[in-house]
UniProtKB/TrEMBL annotation:
One of its GO terms (biological process) is adherens junction organization. Residues 18-129, 145-249 form the Cadherin domain. This is CDHR5 protein. Its main location: membrane. It comes from Oceanodroma tethys. PANTHER family: CADHERIN-23 (PTHR24027), CADHERIN-7 (PTHR24027:SF91). It is found in: Membrane. PROSITE patterns: CADHERIN_2. SUPFAM superfamilies: Cadherin-like (SSF49313). SMART domains: CA (SM00112). InterPro entries: Cadherin, Cadherin-like_dom, Cadherin-like_sf. The gene is Cdhr5. Keywords: Calcium, Membrane, Repeat.
Length: 290
């Protein structure tokens, strides 16, 4: 008698990952849909030769939605949403491998592997002139105000000009990279009256200003490593007459008279002259026409 015996495979083995913990460094400017971890590095094996079902979860709050797997049977991890180093710098993913679909009532064996994702800051931002004001909640955009300075007409200043709200200064907002920045004047100085130090940003004079018109300079800050990363700012230089004398009042003491019961904004009159409003006048010998 010939007896045919068929051995039925019992689900008595769990899936196995080759690596139960791995770390990947991902540049901040990685393109969406790019592969982060290849399928071959994440595929689990099963001695029972079952079909493996995968599920990816994120365990760091605020970092979900950025990474996903290609499919329930394909564990390749890809970038689903653009990264931002300012929002988070690392996250941890857990990949589950099951030998039965999620929700199955059959006995299911499970394995896990942990993927640590480290975000590497990329050169994504142009320089910021300081001081500046953030205009969005995540502090990714900072707008600077114009710089303002003054020079005396027909007078040469030998020192760097004093500007408000401070000296010309720009930084690389990709602060982990902190690339070197150089400065240049790119507009508003057709007469070449001014120069800017490429390294320090100090603004100096090449020659005297002979016109009372103000200068509206455009100064550019450029990253040395990437000339496509630059910003510009306005620098207004007002040309004024030199002031050697302080203003002074025509009289050291003014005496006035008011009457009881006058309405607000009523005139104060000169003492002894009830019909003449009191006037307080100052003059300046440097500016006789003002």
């Amino acid at each position: 008698l010939r007896i045919l015996v068929t051995i039925l495979n019992v689900n008595d083995n769990s899936p196995v990952f080759e690596q139960t913990n791995l770390t990947k460094v991902v540049p901040e400017d990685t393109k969406v849909n790019a592969t982060i971890v290849a399928r071959k590095d994440l595929s689990a094996s099963d001695l029972d030769l079952d079909i493996i079902f995968y599920e990816l979860t994120t365990i760091v709050p605020g970092t979900d939605g950025y990474f996903a797997i290609k499919g329930v049977n394909n564990p390749e991890i890809y970038l689903q949403k653009a990264l931002d180093y300012e929002k988070f710098k690392l996250t941890t993913l857990v990949l589950y491998a099951r030998d039965r679909p999620v929700g199955s009532t059959d006995t299911t064996n499970t394995a896990t592997t942990t993927i640590n994702i480290v975000i590497e800051q990329a050169d994504t931002k142009s320089p910021w002139f300081l001081p500046c004001t953030f205009i969005n909640a995540d502090n990714s955009v900072c707008i600077s105000s114009p710089y303002i300075g003054r020079v005396n007409i027909s007078e040469m200043s030998m020192e760097p000009l004093i500007l408000e709200p401070g000296p010309i200064y720009a930084i690389d907002p990709d602060y982990m990279l902190n690339e070197k920045i150089v400065y240049s004047i790119v507009g508003g100085d057709t007469d070449k009256v001014f120069s800017v130090d490429a390294d320090t940003g100090n603004l100096t004079m090449n020659k005297v200003a002979t016109s009372p018109d103000s200068y509206l300079l455009q100064v550019m800050a450029t990253q040395v490593n990437n000339i496509q990363k630059y910003s510009t700012v306005s620098v207004e230089i007002k040309v004024i007459n030199k002031s050697d004398h302080p203003p002074y009042f025509e009289s050291r003491i003014y005496n006035g008279t008011v009457f009881v019961g006058l309405a607000p904004r009523s005139f104060v009159f000169q003492a002894g002259e009830p019909s003449s409003p009191m006037m307080i006048i100052a003059t300046d010998d440097d500016f006789p026409d003002v």
